[in-house]
Sequence to fold (1030 residues):
Amino acid sequence: MKRRTLLATAALGLSVAFAGTAMAQDKTKACFVYVGPIGDGGWTYQHHQGALAVQAEYGDKVEVQWQENVPEGADAERVLTQMALGGCNIIFTTSFGYMDATNAVAAKFPDVKFEHATGYKRDSANVSTYNARFYEGRAVQGHIAGRMTKSNKIGYIASFPIPEVIMGINSYYLHAKKVNPNVELSVIWAYTWFDPAKEADAAKALIEQGVDVIASHTDSTAPLAEAAKTPGVIGFGQASDMAAYKPSPRVSSIIDNWAPYYVKRVGALMDGTYEQADAWEGIAGGEVEIGEITDAVPADVKAEAEAMRDAIAAGTYHPFTGPIKKQDGSDWLADGVTAPDGDLLGMAFYVEGITGDIPK
Amino acid sequence: MLRLEKRPSPSAFWQKASPFLAVILTMIAGGIMFAALGKNPVEAIRTIFWDPLFGEFAFYFRGQLLVKAGPLILIALGLSLGFRAGIWNIGAEGQYIMGAIIGAAVGLALYPTENRMIYPVMVIAGAFGGWAWAMIPAILKTRFNTNEILVSLLLVYVAQTILAKAATGFLRNPEGAGFPGSRNFSSYPAASNPELIAGTGMHWGVVAAFIAVIAAYVLLQRHILGFHIKLAGQAPRAARFAGVAPNRLVVLCMGISGALAGLAGLFEVTGPAGQITIDFNVGYGFTAIIVAFLGRLNPVGILFAGLLMALTYIGGEMASTNLGLPSAAIQAFQGMLLFFLLASDVLTNFRVRLSTKAVA
Amino acid sequence: MMFGSIDPALLLASVIVASVPIILAAIGELVVEKAGVLNLGVEGMMIMGAICGFVAAVETGSPVLGFVGGALGAAALALVFALLTQYLLTNQVATGLALTLFGLGLSSLIGQGYVGIKPPVTEDVPFGPLADIPFFGRVLFSHDWVAYLSVAVVAAVWWVLRSTRAGLVLRAVGESHDAAHALGYKVTRIRVLAILFGGAMAGLGGAYISLVRVPQWTDGITAGAGWIALAIVVFASWKPWRVLLGAYLFGGITVLQLNLQAAGSAIPVEYLSMAPYLITILVLVIMSSGRGKASLNAPASLGQNFHASR
Fold:
């Protein structure tokens, strides 16, 4: 009985102990949880660049901490608690799989702000979510792909059948089709986010099928390196710029640029204007950056692609604007209607014209 | 030159003292590595070994030690029986995944029924899932003489694909807006595995691990089956004369280790992890092999080895966040600790002698 | 045709290149296991080879020196394993797994400054007119020198194990270290050499991934290839040519399943991605059920430590 009370007190002490540490410090402490190693050169690397940008922006006024390689689930919950106990004021959790852990820990530490990337749950007032509209970048890539392909076959190396990836495939295909009605899309599901050798094999398989433009939704440069071996095949940098493969096969890239958002949120926390948010920025907010379109792309195509980029940034063009039908021929968007965010976030269907099935 | 001389019987002193010597040696070697990385070695070592147990927030981390060690101990116990008998189940990771999937599937199929019997049924289903997955290599071995190392290892990859399919397909949360991942069990009380006493980390999986330690101890010391297992490993021919049927032993040992791994998976998915996700498994099945040998295949030894591994994970994470050590350095440090622990065992069985002659 | 639009010549050529890292690592591990040592640290040694090879190639500008560096780096890590298991008599299974953990960590520390760099290119061997032969030119004469080396190593290991005195001694040590010791062979020394050879081969395989297959450095670049190599050794029943067969079978199905996806096959993707593992198991079952059981057995002393009392 005695032991029980003691433990209950200790549990209660959790939040009390935290309040104490928060008072004690004058610096704002921004903490980041990464799902992979910083050296992955892709997803985690780009988040870390954002963290470093926060440090560079605010210098002595902030302390930045991070933890790499945190598995999703129980381990994430522990790391988050550890960070909250350790006095972090704002914690960025940078993988979809941290969603439930983030909300669970946030409920216990109401004074700490939590920012969860790519999720949709905001169970308590101190949880915000943020994401980037990568499909905007895919639209630009699709345009380039449709104009550049000579074989009329374009490819996409996909990771897992989740809305994020399906959204990218649809956007890529729609914009290729728009400028090249004969285009055919081949999708390979790698069932991994990161396995360079397999990604290389996937790229090779696409090339052997006559595909000459490859986009990838996995993290390594392997597909580009593979494309480099066959003249005439081009591809795109994914997550980071992958500038080593300029000017060809890397003709452009989608760069995840989290720095503006991180700097903005930490800044807001420091000057007291912080509010719960559900941010989904794209090219306009600077989170999705289109890497330099190289001279391997003809000037007119480059100009069109840049015009599309600018139109998206200006808000005058939405990549999913009707009329668009689903793969089964049923209507999705009527003429002139743009896709509601909810449809995009839960996207589980191909648009009309894509062959093959999404694995179920 | 130094020479090793076999002791007539293992030294009782070194059996207890060698792990401590190994930890001290690791602290020295690891300290040098941390210093080389430009960190304060004393602080790093203290953060890893002291803070989780006795530091400011130890009230939280002591419980987390149990959460982390529970599945490791449970799986390692099962594996140790097989390893003693010379049966090599390398695929506990796959059995862990299948236990989680089958157990979770039973629970989710009954959602949202509330009934006291649901959780026990799920536990049985989880054990069954792991057992059934382990029966594939066991039966292939007894029926076709197929090597169990290869089959159990390759089945891990198959299980991972099924897991991805479960998370994105048949077990996906119908209210999750198309995102991958099952329902979270924390919001389904009849099927969840919460902390039994708040703040202690104790959940049914930890309880099961403790029971399993005792059961394995009794089995090996008192039961005829335990005797057969030991005999089969030490003297296979003698075992055959003693009436041990090798095939029966394979089926039994693989079955027990599979069922325990499946249980660990079920407790993890319903408790600390909370849901089926694409990356649900975090390598417990492989780490447990190390734990089994670190504990010298002895149930009590495995208990301590599991706790020590958990300590290095949790302490390592703290060192990584608080001191900015790369998580790779922590991995290398864990490797070193294992090297020293394994090497120090030599003192238990051998005397180190100064030899006048050159070594053969 | 069965494979629709898939060109068999291109497919076979891809398989040969895709299998090189696994062949190299597996043939090295085969020699280690033939000597009676079970080193589960192949993944760790491969990734050390990958980073050491990458660093050496980038710093010297020479891919050849890169491969040498990869072999040396991985052999150095294998030396740790050799010291622990052969002199301090640690448990081989646990030491091997610890080696993988250590290798993954250390490689990432070494590689911190090398993310996003392109290594020097390893050129294909110029076969001149041979490369223009229809079908065979593409399949056989369009690769880099390491691909041919991998087959040569398999042949060499086969020949040494089968026809030379050194091979006989190595096998004797693996079958019964006590008997080999009684005959006056230096069991420990022979095993250490075998472990170093295994390390060097795993290193070459790892370097092939970071210098040719991918080519770049990122953390965890080997992504489990070492485990597949271990499985292939067992699959091969410790016979060198079967390593080649196993690696080509596994690599072949992996490449084929991706090609089938690219060609728009109707087979559900998740079954395709399980196929390499399932078919490897199935083939092993067929092979092991048909023949005399003795020919499939592991070296008798596999995994057991040896300590000479005198």
Notes: DSSP finds eleven helices and 14 strands in chain A. Residues 2-132 of chain A form a domain with the Rossmann fold fold (CATH 3.40.50.2300). Chain A touches chain C through 43 residues (CB under 8 Å). The first helix of chain A runs from residue 2 to 24.
